[in-house]
Amino acid sequence: MRIGTLKTSYGADEALFDSSVQRGLLVLLALGAVAFPFVASPYWLFLACLCAINVASATGLNLLTGYTGLVSLGQAAFMSVGAYAVAVLEIRLGTPFLLNLLIGAALAAVIGILVGIPSLRVKGLYLAIATIAASVILHFLFSHWSLTGEARGLSMPPASLFGYVIDQPFTLYWLIMPVTCLMVLGAANLLRTRIGRAFIAIRDRDISAEVLGIPLLRYKLTSFAISSFYAGLAGGLWAYFFRVVTPESFPLVNSIFYLAAIIVGGMGTILGGILGAVFMTLVPELLKFAANWLTPIYPDALAALAPVRTIVFGGLIVGFLIFEPRGLAEIWRRVRRFFHLWPFRT
Amino acid sequence: MDMLFLAEVALAGLGAGALYALTGVAFVLIYKATRVVNLAIGEILMLGGYAFLGFAAGLGLSPWIALPLAIAAGGVFGWVVERSLIRPMLGENPISVFMVTIGLGSILAGAVQLAWGADPLRLPEFLPGTPIFIGDAYLAPKVAFGFAAAAVVIGLFLALFRFSRGGVALKATAADQGAAYSVGIDVPRVFSIAWILACATAAGAGVLVGAIGGISPTMGVFGLSVLVVVIIGGLDSLAGALVGGLLIGLVEALAGTFLGGEFKLVVTFALLLVLLMVRPYGLFGTHEIERL
Fold first, then answer.
1. Residue B37 touches chain A, beta carbons under 8 Å
2. What is the per-residue pLDDT across A181-235, written as a single tens digit (0 to 9) for each?
3. Is the minimum CB–CB distance between B94 and chain A shorter than 8 Å?
4. Pairing with A150, which of A103, A290, B79, B292 sits 20 to 30 Å away (CA)?
5. Cβ separation of A133 and B290 shorter than 8 Å?
6. How buried is A252 (Cβ within 10 angstroms: 0-12 exposed, 13-18 middle, 19+ buried)?
7. Residue A274: inside a domain, yes or no?
8. A142-167 burial, b for 16+ CB within 10 Å, e for fewer?
């Protein structure tokens, strides 16, 4: 359908959305996102909010792992920093929720920089382990500090805007979805700037990047800061969404989940982070439907649900890495390419 | 402070540390030969424990027959994993390979839970039960047996690497794959053997760990401590795994006794962070010099 996109100016070539078909699809998608809460049941709205939160966090991790090449297993821990900061601010000070979200994200970014400091000396797996160490220490801190409610965690009041309480999936959707869209758009634009290009250069070969005049420490720390800013913001949204934050809300498995999401979606593409996070959030729900459906035939289906979810989670990671290493984004690209010349050539 | 009590805690810690060291050796074996970071090692260990339970309790075999069978099952599993999951990833980005092993760990944990249920289980008793005293300090007999078994196996490995053809081939592969190929070493076979040996060792360690503390589908967490061990010791150093294992066992026992159980993990990881700052490649690891 899109046959020959010719560009006659640098502006057109640099544009984020470079064809009219793409822009048309995006407008349709945006209209769909606006119409969605009016037609969907609360359950689907709940899932949509959860997907959006995961997309925000996965996009942040994608900037760090997919674009800068630094593996982190601490994304859930950074989220917990944002979530706890938001909860504490909301309970103790009652400041406006947008301010809370920003403070939480900024705090997560500071922690991210601290965790990232070893990244100049330590690489690859050693760095991944350092981020695990950081998440173990943060978990310990949150479960022993009286300010964060120790092992009981914190229950917080809902967000409110000019006295209007945001506590239903319908209203939360209008808070979470726009923030996530802004974050994803921000990430896509970041990659067109000097900083984004530096990230990619570091990923491809960090020593070469340094020879080219990219200060490694500064850009690696920037990447950590941005990534954990995203995680902190996602964690803050998570806190407003569930309104209970406990030390067990963000286990190490969640960090693996986000890494798995960007692998399944496609590392180093913005679309990949979105597709992967949505896909990995929805698969357990699909399994739940399957289990409900199977119960009349096989009564133990619901009991087997938890282990089967674990198996499917692992199987998706392994399967995608072996058979489709570039993820869902690559599948989507193939589908699109097929339709480029569709009626004329297949 | 009561010196006797301290000695008992230290002995128990060293006993646990020996099992860390044994699993760490399995980890290092795979890393050294194939440059694969195997994060599923904790789950393979768990699989060993469950395989032993299946043979000993399920089929009613004597524990002393079930033990070698469980170890053999671990070896077969290692072979299958290497051929089906790791071989296709040859030459891929190390992050991808390491995520494959995370996925494998998740599959194993789920499969074991599906087959045996989520509750912790006890292995049939088969280790000697007479209390052992070193001086006046009491040492649990199972822990002592675990320590002895780990020491023997690690000793065997060290001898194997030094004196056998296969061990030398493995060391050559670790040093330089291209050069190893050119002197006629069958590198893919070395990869297979490393995985078989490592998974068999991990399965054996799993039986010992299970005999001391029972088995459960969350036993894979043991792998997290092993990870700390090998990072502290250096990913490609057998001696490092040994020293790191004993050190972490000792630190965990002391922290658990004098600070409280919840401090175990945080103390070891804090130690790890400090060490990474000082020696990013571990105590005995090779410091690789990067060239463009």
1. yes
2. 999 999 999 998 999 999 999 999 888 999 999 999 899 999 999 999 999 999 9
3. yes
4. A103
5. no
6. middle
7. yes
8. bbeeeebbeeebbebeebeeeeeebe
The CATH number given to whatever domain includes residue A210 is 1.10.3470
Judge whether residue A4 has pLDDT over 70. Answer: no
A122/B269 CB distance under 8 A: no
Chain A residues close to B30, C-beta within 8 Å: none
Q: Which of residues 174-233 of A touch B (CB under 8 A)?
A: 205, 207-208, 211
Average the pLDDT over A108-128 and give the result. Answer: 85
pLDDT value of residue A345: 66
Q: Is the pLDDT of residue B248 over 60?
A: yes
Most B-contacting residue of A317, A320, A323, A324 (CB-CB within 10 A), to test interface:
A317
Find the length of chain B. Answer: 292
A346 confidence band (pLDDT: 50, 70, 90): low
Q: To 10 degrees, what angle do helices B63-81 and B187-213 make?
A: 140
Beta bridge partners of A166: A159
A296: Cβ contacts below 8 Å, ≥ 6 apart = none
Q: In the numeric block, which tokens belong to residue B184?
A: 């006629």
pLDDT for res B130: 73
Q: pLDDT for B182-237, tens place per residue? A: 999 998 999 999 999 999 999 999 999 888 888 888 888 888 889 889 988 888 88
Alpha carbons within 13 angstroms on the beta-carbon side of residue A201 total 18
Q: How many domains does chain B have?
A: 1
Identify the H or E element spanning A159: strand A159-161
Number of structural domains in chain A:
1
Is B203 within a domain? yes
With respect to residue A2, please indicate whether it lies within any of the assigned structural domains.
no
Mean pLDDT computed over every residue of chain B? 87
What is the C-alpha separation between B129 and B31, in angstroms, rounded?
Answer: 36
| Over residues A125-143, mean pLDDT | 88
Which positions in chain B touch A315 (Cβ < 8 Å)?
103, 107
